[in-house]
Fold Site-specific recombinase resolvase.
Amino acid sequence: MNNLQSFIPLTITRRGVQRLASTSAPAFDCVFLQGLGRAFYWQKLLDSGLMKSGSEIAKAEGLHHSTVNELLRLTLLAPDIIEMLMAGRQPRRLTLMWFQRNRLPVDWQVQRDIIAQFD
């Protein structure tokens, strides 16, 4: 069993409202990084011929095929975006769930333009 932890800096106001604290410290999204790692591992299985399709991977992993295919799209991210994510410098709203719900184009510059809109 993996124990993944994620730190989310919060400030609590006088009225007890929680808000994200503004900080320049890296904020590693462990769930996202795990998904990214799985995507590249699965892509390697496909490239090597050990697995023939995302559906075959899904069956072996006990997952729905759409989950595997959604994560495999992460392997198409621009290298500098992947580096930003791995360094914990991504915009706070840029989560794995966002990538699963929104298709990014294959064009790396267009990806960068979309990511820049989060700032």
Notes: The chain is about 50% helix and 5% strand. Strands lie at 10-12, 18-20. Residues 29-116 form one domain. The first strand starts at residue 10 and ends at 12.
